[in-house]
What we know:
Elements: H1 4-11, H2 15-23, H3 30-43, H4 49-56, E1 61-65, H5 74-90, E2 94-98, H6 103-113, E3 118-121, H7 131-136, E4 141-144, E5 154-158, H8 160-173, E6 178-183, H9 186-190, H10 194-210, E7 213-218, H11 225-235, E8 241-244, H12 247-260, E9 269-273, H13 276-281, E10 287-289, H14 293-309, E11 319-322, E12 326-327
Parallel strand pairs: 1-2, 1-3, 3-4, 4-5, 5-11, 6-7, 6-8, 8-9, 9-10
Antiparallel strand pairs: 10-12
Amino acid sequence: xxxxxxxxxxxxxxxxxxxxxxxxxxxxxxxxxxxxxxxxxxxxxxxxxxxxxxxxxxxxxxxxxxxxxxxxxxxxxxxxxxxxxxxxxxxxxxxxxxxxxxxxxxxxxxxxxxxxxxxxxxxxxxxxxxxxxxxxxxxxxxxxxxxxxxxxxxxxxxxxxxxxxxxxxxxxxxxxxxxxxxxxxxxxxxxxxxxxxxxxxxxxxxxxxxxxxxxxxxxxxxxxxxxxxxxxxxxxxxxxxxxxxxxxxxxxxxxxxxxxxxxxxxxxxxxxxxxxxxxxxxxxxxxxxxxxxxxxxxxxxxxxxxxxxxxxxxxxxxxxxxxxxxxxxxxxx
Length: 333
């Protein structure tokens, strides 16, 4: 196991300089800090969290605030939790995951108690009630998901509007002129899930520019409602292609199509929005935009850790929308 002396030798600095970098007790140059951080990463060095907490009032814990809704597909949300946890552990931090339904109260309670060094948000709403509380806390914050006003925080999200445009372009290039669009449930829109309407509105606008007719449905998220809805949509189908922006629906789709004898892409072209890991988990053979939960989670942790380690460096917060990448799995014709 690597020691602080190993880190000092690798970075070419004194042991005390590494201690100062970890504790924040003294100012060191950006170049030196970067060499130390690189050495820590290369060696897999984990600081003694208990000793550091006593010496610096730092807990080496990140508060991860997640809200699980009954109408959402939990496996999709867990895709973001794991890379955040992994990235935090690699940086020497533990995760305190808080799932309290009153998100604003949870952030206030945890941040004011001094239990965490920084705060991370998932399930970010357009008008997120947790943000006003975060503006008052002393710890830095970051989030995966784009609110209406991200000012003051590092924010990372998929470029959902461009994702919608890319999938419509993909189908339009192959001559499709009538498309089914299955979106998240209506509840997601009502509580401010901006990712849902950012994708939908951009897809509908791009489709209109091609003269493509789109029949849009709010998708279900629990069984047997999912299969029942899919069968009703397919019973009435005249469209030649389907875009699915709903994790629960896309996970159930292969079995429904198989039971009806509908072949993809011979009888129906299908595209979706999901991660590569999610696709493997549910054996999804569909062309899709990669949602990049691993990349987004790691970017958010890295930005948050940098602010926790170097609070004296007053850099502007950033809003980064990850460009969508489409993986063609041959499910369109």
